[in-house]
Fold each of these.
Amino acid sequence: MVRVSRRNFLKFSAALSAAGGIVPLDSLFTASSAGAGSKPVVISTWNHGVAANDAAWRVLSGGGSSLDAVEAGVRISEGDPKVMSVGFGGLPDEDCTVTLDASIMGPNGNAGAVAFVQHYKHPISIARKVMEKTDHVMLVGEGAEEFARRQGFERRELLTEEARKRWLEWKAGMSEKDDWLAPAVNHDTIGMVALDSAGDLAGACTTSGLAFKIHGRVGDSPLIGAGMYVDNEVGAAAATGKGEAVIRTCGSFLVVEGMRDGLSPQKAIKRALERIIEWHGGGVDFQVAFVAVNRSGKTGALAIQKGFQYALARDGTNELIDSEYLLE
Ligand code: ASP
């Protein structure tokens, strides 16, 4: 199917100076980013979202469910050691341990999540088992691993040689003055939301979290309503970027509630990002971005900072798109 292209969207410097750093709502809508509504459709974060969308599209175009599509999609990033921010090959924490987080949510409102998983390559599939085989929503650490073992998942080492080398470089560059407050560089979590031909929505989000984080740190990705949220009557959203900022504001839930208020996915994301910026005192130096889709198949994607890309598959095309952003 796939045609991969890049589009460069407008910069908004004129609007920015007029608005004191924040772009006015109406200047943000291009036909391409707001998107015409159609189904099926799948949208996901970052450049590895293209391969993930391919796998999701195979499910959707065969009449499969959005839930199966998002699971199949993000498993591609989880299994690819070249994607160093998700799954197998993800960058480790400060103790050189890879710890994975994931969440999944379907059209019936049920959800599953795992966090602090250290020996299983596909946390998204463990999260789905939590959703379908238990009446819990979230399992963490050893409990999640024991559950995975009982469900027949294969235990394995997640640290690759390349990831270990990056950790060694990071360790060598550390000084006693370092803390964990500096903006981290790798924001490449995959968040994916999809609408299937039957009109049902689903979402998935999976990550190795911030590189070199404190051992035990869990971000937004496995938290339902923060890293990802689905309401089949309204829409679905998923986040990437600084998890702490997304947790504090219930980011994905906020985007979905914006759509419930009648906003388009793009406007709902903008309102949520503005809330995050405002909450953090205005001039933020970190990245947060969302992708979203509503019930009629309209999509949105927007970031705080320059540099975010997302992948959008619909009508037999799958494009990598440079996102619009709010702050210079
Ligand atoms: N949101 C992720 C986290 O905070 C990081 C990312 O998007 O890369 O764990």
Note: The longest helix spans residues 265-279.
Amino acid sequence: MQHEPKANSLSSAAAQKGLLFGTALCTSDLQLQPLADAILHNCNIITPEYEMKWDAIARDSGRSDYSASDQLMTFSSANGLALHGHALWWHEAVPSALRNASGKRFSDAALDHLRTTVTRYAGQVHSWDVVNEPLEPAHDRGDGLRATPFLGAFGPEYIETAFRQASLLDPNAVLVLNEMGLEYVSPAAERKRRQMLALLERELGRGTPIGCLGIQSHLTALEQPHDHPELRGFLREVRGLGLSVMVTEMDVSDHLCPRDRKQRDAIIADTYRGYLDLVLDEVRVLAVSTWCLSDNRTWLNGFHPRPDGAPQRPLLFDRAIRKKPAWHAVKAALLHEGQGASDPVQASQ
Ligand code: 9MR
């Protein structure tokens, strides 16, 4: 059963441009009826926020538990939603029992996790974040790779290994390399963009089956500019490599914004709008997902607490699951309302 986008929803706005709209969620969200209803109304793709990660599945060392992950898979298929699998290999989701494992023990376990998980859901997921956050310019390697247990155990070929395995076991899934911080304005972000292009060229050159670049898009209001030529240039180059893009984890931290709610909500909405307008102008986007849908379910109060202690308002719905200006801004951006008549991506295809 294919999900039919509902009238006046974000997925129907996205469908007009041929893309999916979605959110991250966890199993407990399904118990909150108004939130579950808002997800079903607005989304046609979902991403497990953490319950499909390796450390969540292998919480009990020695025993894999896919029950939460299966529940989200069942929710998606029962409702005709696509599911974006997140994430197969991520350094922050290595099970604690393996953090200090030696090369061979670690690589055997990592391959086993990837194979078992991809096989379990083969033919059911829309896409996989196969490798998450491979770059860290501060680790000062020529290739920009982050020093992780995956790099330690397999060497730089770990990316090729992961994508080849995933492609073999689920040839129809979109295989995504997902990265954070490619969107920012700073010398470090520009360095990361250059390193990402070099990585993609290197991997595509040796036949690694990467189909799509995931740009996480954890934005900060008052820091993220509308006009961002370096990001535009980067996205054009990604497109030139033949890759599509997914906006995988979008939210807007308001820790730099004034406390006044109206002002804050307006600045946040404007940040979403400017950012999506730019991205949708430059690349072929398969899906846009936010990192949860309502302000009661955000990781940002822990990560970027506001100095005045007020709760963050980074998402599209407020805590009472009412639409915020950000919802309308995202909808307008998906429809490209108010933009020039020409759409460079569509026009050139
Ligand atoms: O939002 C997620 C949080 O609930 C988890 O505790 C955490 C660790 O698994 O991961 C958070 O999501 C991260 C995502 O998986 C990768 N990009 C950064 C996200 C925010 O930290």
Note: The domain at 10-335 is CATH 3.20.20.80 (TIM Barrel).
Amino acid sequence: MNKDIKHLIEDIESEVQYTSAYIGKSKLDKRVMQTMARVPREEFVPKTMQYAAYDNGPLPIGHGQTISQPYIVALMSDLLSLKPEDRVLEIGTGSGYQTAILAELCEKVFSIERIAELSRQAEERFSKLNYKNIETRVGNGYQGWQEHAPYDGIIVTAAATHIPQPLIDQLKPGGNLVIPVAMSHFSQSLMRVKKDLDGEIETQDILNVVFVPLVNDEQDKSNSVH
Ligand code: SAH
């Protein structure tokens, strides 16, 4: 492991310890942490930000968006409880870093991004790093991706105003949806939504977080008409 990644892993481990009262554990899943130690984050940040690629913080990636903090990427991956044979839907490809982590943890990742240029750049990174189990699409992830549903896990990496019903519908019984939900202008809560085998939904607040907003284009268009 290179020295910078080693430091990053230590920083994530200590933040997990520090937040253990909220997240209910003092260590994240071993497979998740091994994956965090393997995926080169420097490939997912702009050239001008390379020096900070292994800092445990978010970084700008252009278009007003950010690559998420590595601790949050690890935590959200852990909360999905993925098995190697699982298929996952991600909303908000962004840099593609979280997508790559998921691609190492499960069979197939479907990822939607609304900004075409970010999606294109992420695609380039996936082919450079030889990921063959990622399918991307440009569009509004609020609606999910019906064609490949249902999913064993769904992850949203932008803050929604509420839990989108299409995503609940596209989640397999027994699966987890991990999503930041805005409680007010100032506070967002990372939530885990579990669908049990009878299709019943149980939601759990995990931690206060800060994400860029999930932009629901159709909704915003209809708002501007009224
Ligand atoms: N996981 C990414 C996070 C990027 S920030 C990373 O670590 O790089 C969140 C991303 O969600 C942004 O790229 C933003 O454009 C995208 N986004 C916001 N609303 C969206 C929507 N409705 N559908 C798809 N993508 C959306």
Note: The radius of gyration is 17 Å.
